[in-house]
Specification:
single chain, 168 residues, alpha/beta, 5 helices
Length: 168
């Protein structure tokens, strides 16, 4: 009786992995996407205060995923700050940091003199609920709490305004 060759075993393993990942990607799971009610998270801010997405029901909210080590996020930060300064009374901007320490984000905030609201998703639970795979990623949530836009990559102040203005 012949033993199966290593090449056949490797090929079978590779095919198995492709099937596994294909099924994983095709299965929706617990994530919320465009057109669905946004996952109502509660996360800690820089001051230790708990902030809920539901606190902003009735107002268009922007949720942005961020990390201090992410170069496109750092490049995008002044655009988000400018957006918040001009439109913050009308649209709430919540920046969610993925898995970093508060000290690291506080240092970033101090160095960049930002007044934005930074929240901490220490265990990536909220990021997973929104199916965030990278950063920056931005979500626009309408007044009823429905995700209307999902923008992947850095966004400018004017691009963000164009997205949110549709949902006044």
């Amino acid at each position: 009786m012949k033993k199966p060759s290593i090449k056949i075993l490797v090929l079978a393993a590779v095919i198995g992995l492709f099937v596994y990942f294909g099924i994983s990607l095709a299965t929706k799971g617990e994530y919320t996407g465009v057109g669905e009610t946004a996952y109502n998270f509660e996360l800690e801010d820089l001051n230790g205060k708990m902030v809920k997405l539901a606190d902003y029901k009735g107002q268009v909210a922007v949720v942005n995923y961020f990390a201090t080590w992410c170069i496109p996020c750092v490049d995008e930060a002044p655009e988000l700050e400018a957006f918040e300064k001009e439109y913050g009374d009308k649209y709430k901007l919540l920046i969610i940091d993925r898995g970093e320490t508060q000290d690291r984000v506080k240092k970033f905030v101090k160095e960049n003199k930002t007044t934005s609201t930074y929240l901490f998703d220490f265990n990536d639970k909220v990021s997973k609920a929104y199916n965030v795979v990278a950063q920056p990623e931005t979500f626009v949530i309408d007044k009823e709490g429905v995700i209307r836009e999902h923008y992947i990559g850095p966004i400018t102040k004017s691009e963000l305004y164009d997205l949110v203005a549709k949902y006044e």
